PurE domain-containing protein
Amino acid sequence: MDVDFLKNILEGVKMGNIEIEDALKELKILPFEDLGYAKIDHHRSIRNGYPEVIYCEGKTDEHILGIIEKMSQKNCNILGTRVKKETYEKIKKIYPNCKYEELGRIIKIQNKPIENIGKGNIVVVTGGTSDIPVAEEAYHTAHFLGNNVKKLYDVGVAGIHRLLNNKELLFDARVIIAVAGMEGALASVVGGLVDVPVIAVPTSVGYGANFNGLSALLTMLNSCASGISVVNIDNGFGAGYLASMINKL
């Protein structure tokens, strides 16, 4: 549900095309619709500018399908994260317009045109190839929320000339998402080159002392470069969402 949906209801009542009782049936599910196992926040796009996103990990396929059904009834564009391919196959049978981004484990159901709300480019940068799945989650999240998004993968500090050879892409960005595991130094390097916000995403990529991403997280939190914010380990979605909020300001 979005602002246009509410405007259409109010306009319909004003013009006499919608009965007051019918309008009340639609409005009474605000601010959420209780399915028993989930409370769908139909009001979120009005408050935050984006509809609720379905975090699918840990949910049953039946629950995911139930949430999608209710959101589709409101003509929402639907984004789901951490989706297993087997779950996508079940969704695809019911919603043929469902798209699956396998690397990022993202499903997208576009029920209406996506408005480009971004003021500039978001650039997603990775330290290595192993960081790409998390980067893809960030990329597709930001793109689905209405932004121009560009990729710059495998340009970590072990071969920093790869990053410097693409500095024009960095300088043209309005927001940068830096995704890296191991020691997580990429965000500091990027932050020292640009005059725009850098969102650092630590990944769980690395050997034993990486502690499943903790070393990269601590490096990013302790960065000496200014203008860096840090999301949780492997949280590509959070980075893409935050970048979109910044880019539409």
Observations:
- Residues 19 and 25 are 10 Å apart (CA to CA).
- The longest helix spans residues 3-15.
